Amino acid sequence: MFLGRVVGEVWATKKAQDLHGLRLLVVEALDERREPGAKKVTPVVAADPLGTDIGEHVIVAFGKAARVATLGADGDYAFEAAIVGIVDDFDAPLAPARWRTEKIQERGKGGS
Amino acid sequence: MFLGRVVGEVWATKKAQDLHGLRLLVVEALDERREPGAKKVTPVVAADPLGTDIGEHVIVAFGKAARVATLGADGDYAFEAAIVGIVDDFDAPLAPARWRTEKIQERGKGGS
Amino acid sequence: MFLGRVVGEVWATKKAQDLHGLRLLVVEALDERREPGAKKVTPVVAADPLGTDIGEHVIVAFGKAARVATLGADGDYAFEAAIVGIVDDFDAPLAPARWRTEKIQERGKGGS
Amino acid sequence: MFLGRVVGEVWATKKAQDLHGLRLLVVEALDERREPGAKKVTPVVAADPLGTDIGEHVIVAFGKAARVATLGADGDYAFEAAIVGIVDDFDAPLAPARWRTEKIQERGKGGS
Amino acid sequence: MFLGRVVGEVWATKKAQDLHGLRLLVVEALDERREPGAKKVTPVVAADPLGTDIGEHVIVAFGKAARVATLGADGDYAFEAAIVGIVDDFDAPLAPARWRTEKIQERGKGGS
């Protein structure tokens, strides 16, 4: 699992049967978004079973975990990434300051 | 899953039995293509069950999800990547502007 | 599995059912934390079945291994990363000196 | 799956039982080899069920797909990467020119 | 699987039950160790069923393959990386010269 931020949504008319009805969000790993000059950003596409808003911080899981989080059990489904948690706050005193967004910083419990 | 762009097609005469009849496309992660000076591009090879054109934006899935998308179920197949969706549009207001191609920008619903 | 350091904790009210009751820690790969100017840090989120403190060095495992370490067996659970060991010490004579933290260096058995 | 080039072969006397009799090749992702100053090359080791020559372009698959391609079915085998196709040619008009080797360029069907 | 070099060993008193009795080594991907100024090294932790010495070149496998190599079969075990082969020699005429260590170069069968 990784800590990321929802940066957008994606739509596809032609897609695998199992993706119909799934909301698909684009997520960037947290650290990468925070560096404007960063050379590489990974645009992960994740199913969203939680009703996440653009801009929110999330925990993304892959593989079986993503299918369980979205549909309640693993099975023959054509996706392998999902948002498994919407982050309320995180306390990362040893992490780079740039991991924190304004939104989360306002809530206190800061990681100075 | 990741958001990418189809940059080409690949042909192999000698290959695993299960790959016969599968169209194999070369996909770059979206962000990477947009940076001419980027040091690292990952040429993913994905099965294409959707009839994707060169240049189109796609969602690529790995592992079981790729086999389900291509053959309807998981099983003992010799591939682990497939295009699971052809992107019509995406709205990524928080993503770098360079993620958008001209083609998609023309369609409106911009992410500026 | 990789060698990392716990840099923080993360909380989520809205999350997959299986994540309730799990402590979720943020872990950085060891090498990355040691380079202040590094361009890319991967904020892995891992379940913590061992009672790890912030700042400790850990071994993180993914997939089935993470579920076994946390719940004693694999199953349909919505997570795929966990701390499987808290590092007492490591002897890495051929690794970069910066991999060692002060805390571990004080314990002797150095890798200089 | 990724598109790579076979750069060498590796021998091991002490190895997991399942690796006996398997030819093990070293493969570099295509893009990386093409950049002399690239900072990071990933030396993937893949089983070769196809009789690939050093220097040839290949498609490499991981996990179950690698075991199926090598042994006809998945099972408890101690490897997770294999060459699943030897590339005859590829047409990648949108990919960097440096992806093409001299060998393949000579065959025509160029991607210029 | 990837080609790496054992750079150290790691000890953990508090760990998942399945890790007791397993020797845990720290492995760097080969290419990365060879570049002193490289920005990113991945300290993989792998179980060692083969009695590998520090400094030796190894083939590391992940997931099911790692469990099979270590315990003879897959199962609910809390690890997902293992050394599956100790490299005697490798012949990589197309790979960067820095991939070779002194130790292996002395044995002849060079890749120059």
Explain what the structure shows.
The structure is a homopentamer of 112-residue chains. By secondary structure, chain A is of the alpha+beta class. In chain A, 15% of the residues lie in helices and 37% in strands. Chain A contains 3 helices and 5 strands, in the order E-E-H-E-E-H-E-H. In chain A, strand 1 and strand 2 form a beta hairpin. The longest helix of chain A is centred in the middle third of the chain and has 8 residues, at 64-71. Chain A is globular. Mean pLDDT of chain A is 81; it is low at 32-40 and 101-112. Chains in contact: A-B, A-C, B-D, C-E, D-E. The B-D interface holds B 5-16, 18-19, 24, 26, 28, 33, 39-46, 54-55, 63, 76-81 and D 1-3, 29-32, 35, 38-40, 49-51, 59, 61-66, 68-69, 72-74, 84-96, 99, 111. Strand 5 (81-91) of chain A pairs antiparallel with strand 1 of chain C.
Could you provide a short overview of the structure?
The first copy, chain A, is an alpha+beta fold and 112 residues long. Chain A has helices at 30-33, 64-71, 102-106; strands spanning 2-15, 24-29, 44-47, 57-62, 81-91.
Which features characterize this protein?
alpha+beta; 5 strands; homopentamer; 37% strand; 112 residues
